[in-house]
Structure formats: structure tokens, C-alpha cells
Amino acid sequence: MPSPSDRRPLESWQDPKAAPYVRIDRVTKQFGDVYAVDDVSLNIFQGEFFSLLGSSGCGKSTLLRLLAGLEYPTSGRIYIDGVDVTDVPPYSRPVNMMFQSYALFPHMTVEQNIEFGLKQDRLPRRERAERVGEMLDLLRITELRKRRPDQLSGGQRQRVALARSLAKHPKLLLLDEPLGALDKRLRENTQFELVNLQERLGITFVTVTHDQEEAMTMSSRIAVMDAGQIMQVDTPTAIYEFPNSRFVAEFIGSVNLFEGKIVAIQGDDVLIEAQFGGLMRMRSLQPHPIGTPAVVAIRPEKLRLCQTPSDDGVNRLQGVVEDIAYLGDVSIYRIRTGGGTLVEMTLTNIQPRTEQALTWEQEVWVEWSPTSGVVLTD
Amino acid sequence: MKRRSWPLLSVLAFGYAFLYVPILLLILYSFNESRLVTVWSGFSFKWYGELLHNRQLLDAAWLSVRIAAVNATIALVLGTLAANALVRHGRFRGRTGLELLLTAPLVMPDVIIGLSMLLLFVALQQTIGWPDGRGFSTITIAHITFSLAYVAVVVRSRLARMDASLEEAAMDLGARPLTVYRRITLPLIAPALLSGWLLAFTLSLDDLVIASFVSGPGSTTLPMVIYSSVRMGVSPQINALATLVVAVVALAVVIAGFSLRRR
């Protein structure tokens, strides 16, 4: 599945001259004693598809509501397009939001729902009708325009909610779990549609999601959140390949963590004495003092499986195949190593399954190269 | 339900009979020709005709309807405001107090409410000279104090079930708080407002106890007239009038029920 974000030419967040479209400056939101958002600073640029990713209760929804003006921060400032909007009420912000529950007005038709925001702007009738027509077209829901929300399916409601939030041509659209209420098949189609829509309209999207796959597919950048704080902000690729902490490594996808202690630096590589009783050599450009405890994080698909060990003696583990889960395109192997830890790895099933040599209880070597993982020292 | 269990059905029939046979008898006897309430002598609209010429009864009925309507309207406004405060404004100072004081009239005996109201009005009259005599306004005020509690309960449960993100969405789309209330909140709680109003109306219409305390000479409500005339011997006119009241109340209840069931 090609990630739509790979097509993206602009990378405004890397351009030092670019001014952020949304600037969140040391924002904290407290509910009683609870810090829902804890000293968060974040820059989001024009045209981005930005995702706030985290498990429930991590503060991502609160952060989105702060941008919408539905909550006011306890401290810190929020700027949109250079203007301080921290104290601006939601009805005066150049921002629209698509709610998780869609929040369609049950006593209005689809048409009236879409028109509602335009009426608040006192647009002339002709222009309103035009804009509503344009939105109905854009989301291909023209035939639903006379229906009421309770006569729509989940997918249709999602499109109406999207149409309503886009009708005022906002520069910034906030989406709270935009695909959360859809079934799996519909969700995958809608993901691509959302991204296409966003690129076509050139609107900055900020979405909230707990679904990492969704965030990976759609986003230009992802902010991984935990306990009200931002753990890492980066492109989907960077978040997956170069997590900056144990939390992010474990939160996104599966990962094997090998603990150890840094014993030597050799050029660009560090040597780590592993707890499983061997040496690991990993590429790491950050300076590490010798003696620091470190964790080597390696994704399951970046491990190699060998029948006989290669000769350089580092980055390898011996074990037996304990579990094989055949998923069709790939198989997941669980290898029980000498120290008792389980190593998880995935192999693409290049050959038909019947011809595969590996079986249960077989003795194997698990190996990896210095560039296939990261060294974490937090 | 294909299989009917006869014991259960007969229990049900007995229950309904217990509740409604007295009222049915009353309606039946309102069409009785005889002057004696307990002897059936033939079908007639005679008592309805006489009722139309009974000024005392008609005046009392008109006073009761006016009080009930004014009471219901004011109680609706106040009760809705209270419900809004309780549901939409989180934990403000004095919230528990408001909640408690608001529900107290629901369980307070009518006699106590009536007596305390009477004491209040007398004291007020002695200190500020108002109310100058008791009647329409004192009865209405007394009725508002307890019916607003009922309105608040009905509206509150409706507001609490309403998805708060609807109001947020309207605000996000550019509507100011008052517009949000008018265009989103009010239409969605309208059924509860209607049934709250009707509830307050009927509560006031059939109140005897409180009205007896706070009414004055020349302002006799319908229940008071009926009650006092029964003591002197029931005229079949009362049956006719009671039938009309039952019809009005039943209609109100049916409308309220329907409007609450719709979404």
C-alpha cells in the first residue's frame, strides 16, 4: 500500500523560513488536578495533514478542542495564521471541526445542515445555494440533500459532516477521529479520499486518531502523545524507522527491544553489551557516553533468520522456533532465545508455504545489521 | 404474543378497573336524566345545558383556566432556566443547593406549601402592602412555586440526553450562544417544553389544597367550587363539568405523551 504522504513534495516543516500556520506555544490545560495537555508546543504548517496520535485519555482530543476554541487553555498561547486566538470564542475562529459523533443537527435536512454555517455568515441566499451545491457535489451526496440525519447510513453521515465543516471554506479543518465510526472496508477507502480532498482543496488538516495505521497512511506528520505530552513529532516514516523513545517504538507497530550497556564507540557505530550475552553493533550518530544503559529497538521485518551463524559474531541470537503465524502475505515467527526472551520477526512468504524450510522447534539464528534499528537511551 | 395467560390478563383488567371505573361512572352519570346521582333514568344532555347557565361554576372554571395558563407559562420559563443551569453549566457555586431546593416542592405536602404561602402573603401585606387581598395573583404565584419544579425535572432529563456536541458544532460553525439556543437547543427540547407546560397546566387546574389557602373572597377556583358543592349534595352538573375537565386533561396528557415520544 503506497503511502499518499510519499507523493508530497512540500516539506514546509523543514524550511526554516516558513512561518507556521498554527503555533501552539507552551499550552497547558488542566481539569481540576488532571493535566489533560501538559506544556505542549507545536508548529503546524499550511497544507499539512497533521495527526495527533495516542491512546484514549492522552490529551489529543483536548488539544484539538483547544484549537477549535471549545476549551480555553489554563496557560500558554495559540496562534492561527499569525493571530493570537487564545481568547477568541469558537464562533469567531477561522477554523471548522468535524466531530467524532458527527453532531449533525437531527431536526434539519442534509442541505440545511450544510447551509447552517453559511447562514451564520449572512451570505446571500444565491451564494449559499451555490456553496451547498458545490459541497454536495464534492462529496457526491447530492441525492441525499433532502434527507434527515436519521435516514442516513454511517458512511453517509460522515460525508455530510465533512461537507458541513468544509462549507465555510475554512483554512484549517479539525477532524476528531474522522473514520472512527466507519467499518473497516469503508475506512480504507475513505482514508485515501480524505487525503485526496485535502490535497485538492489545499486546506490544513489536523486530525485526532488512536489508530496508528490510519495516521501512518494519511499524515504528512504525526505527533505521538502520551499523558498530555508530545513524545515525538515527525513524518510517518521517521516515526516508524527512527523512534526517539521506547514509548514511541512500542506504540507504533511491533518492535523487539534488546537491553544492554554501551561499552565502546567505533566511528559511527556504538558497541553495546547485550543482556542476552553478546555484543551488538549499531549505527548511531548521537554522542553516547560509555557506560550508558541503552535499548536496541528492531522492527520484526528487519531481522534475518539463518540456519548457521555468520562469522562476525555481533548482532545475533540463537533460539528455537516456538510459534509460526501464517497470515498469507507474511508469516510471523516467534523465536524463544537462550535467555528466555521471545523475539518476534516477520518474513515475506516468497515461496508457497509448503516449500518453506522452517518448522516448529527448529534451531535458528536471528541476525540483524547495524543500520536496521535504533539505539534508545531514555 | 400468541399465548394468553388468563390469570395475568384478569389481574391487568382488575388494575385498569380499579383506576378507571370511578371515572367512567362519573362520565356515565353526567348523561343521566335523573336529578339523583345514583339512579339511572335515561340518557340526556340536560345537565350540560344547565351547566352553561351556571355563572358560579363557569366563572370558577374560567378563573382556573386563566391561573393554569399563566402559571404554566411562567413555570416553563423559570423551570427551563433552572434545568439549563443544572445541565449545561457544570459545577457552579450553589449547584447542590439549587438542585435540592428545586426538587423539594416535589415531595413537600401541599398543606405545608399552602400554609407557608398564606403566611408569606399575610406578612407581605402587613409590611409592604402587597398583595392587596388574595386571589388570582396569589394563587398563581403559589402554583408557580411548585409547578416549576416539575417543569425543571422534565426539561432537565431531555437536555441531559441531548448530545452537547450539537451545540458545540453550531458554535463552531459561527453561531453565537443565543443563536445556538434558538436554532439548535430549543427545537430539540421543544417536546419536553410542551409536555412541561401541559404538566404545569394540569397540576394547577386540579389543585385544591394550595388554592384554598391562598385564595380570597370572590376568587374561587373550580376544584374549590366542586369540593364545596359536593358537601351540600352533588348536583349532576358537577358530573357534567367533571367530564369536561377529564376530557381536557386526557387530551393534554395524550398530546404530551405523543410529543415526548417523537424523538
TrEMBL record, chain A:
Residues 22-252 form the ABC transporter domain. GO terms for cellular component: ATP-binding cassette (ABC) transporter complex. InterPro entries: AAA+_ATPase, ABC_SmlMolc_Importer, ABC_transporter-like_ATP-bd, ABC_transporter-like_CS, Mo/tungstate-bd_C_term_dom, P-loop_NTPase, PotA-like, Transp-assoc_OB_typ2. GO terms for biological process: putrescine transport. SMART domains: AAA. The keyword rRNA processing does not apply. Keywords: ATP-binding, Cell inner membrane, Cell membrane, Membrane, Nucleotide-binding, Translocase, Transport. Its EC number is 7.6.2.11. It catalyses: ATP + H2O + polyamine-[polyamine-binding protein]Side 1 = ADP + phosphate + polyamineSide 2 + [polyamine-binding protein]Side 1. It is an enzyme of class 7 (translocase). PROSITE patterns: ABC_TRANSPORTER_1 (PS00211), ABC_TRANSPORTER_2 (PS50893). It comes from the Bacteria. The keyword Cytoplasm does not apply. GO terms for molecular function: ABC-type polyamine transporter activity; ATP binding; ATP hydrolysis activity. Belongs to the ABC transporter superfamily. Spermidine/putrescine importer (TC 3.A.1.11.1) family. Part of the ABC transporter complex PotABCD involved in spermidine/putrescine import. Responsible for energy coupling to the transport system. The complex is composed of two ATP-binding proteins (PotA), two transmembrane proteins (PotB and PotC) and a solute-binding protein (PotD). This is Spermidine/putrescine import ATP-binding protein PotA. It comes from Allochromatium humboldtianum. The lineage of its organism: Bacteria, Pseudomonadati, Pseudomonadota, Gammaproteobacteria, Chromatiales. The gene is potA.
UniProtKB/TrEMBL annotation, chain B:
The chain crosses the membrane at residues 7-31, 60-87, 99-124, 136-155, 184-205, 238-260. The keyword Transmembrane applies. It is a multi-pass membrane protein. One of its GO terms (biological process) is transmembrane transport. InterPro entries: Bact_Polyamine_Transport, MetI-like, MetI-like_sf. GO terms for cellular component: plasma membrane. Its main location: membrane. It is found in: Cell membrane. Keywords: Cell membrane, Membrane, Transmembrane, Transmembrane helix, Transport. It comes from the Bacteria. Residues 61-256 form the ABC transmembrane type-1 domain. It holds the Pfam family BPD_transp_1. The keyword Chaperone does not apply. Belongs to the binding-protein-dependent transport system permease family. CysTW subfamily. This is ABC transporter permease subunit. It comes from Allochromatium humboldtianum.
